[in-house]
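user: can you give me the structure for this one chain? tokens are fine.
assistant: on it. calling the predictor now.
[tool input]
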Amino acid sequence: MLHTFDDANFKKEVLDSKVPVLVDFWAPWCGPCKKMGPVVDALAEELAKAKEPFKIGKMNVDENSTTPGLYNIMSIPTLMVFRGGEPVDQLVGLQGRERLLEALKGAGKED
């Protein structure tokens, strides 16, 4: 299941999440974001069906400026993985499904 994150729900949905969270920072006018979107959507659906302990969602940077500013999002798409309220991985630009899955699974491992 794909989640929609915004400045208002970011703390509850991402920072307070009990499972690792992948956040896709994007904008509707961004060409690479349009290519990245279906990859993120498909991965969210795939992991939900497999009952994997991850949360995946998107944040529109045009509609939400506070959160991207806090994490110094300068280029989009930027994909960040959070665990325990902290960013643990950041990917900038187009990414393949395998790289996203690797980042999420890496965040799911205990140190």
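assistant: here you go. The domain at 2-108 is CATH 3.40.30.10 (Glutaredoxin). The longest strand covers residues 86-92.
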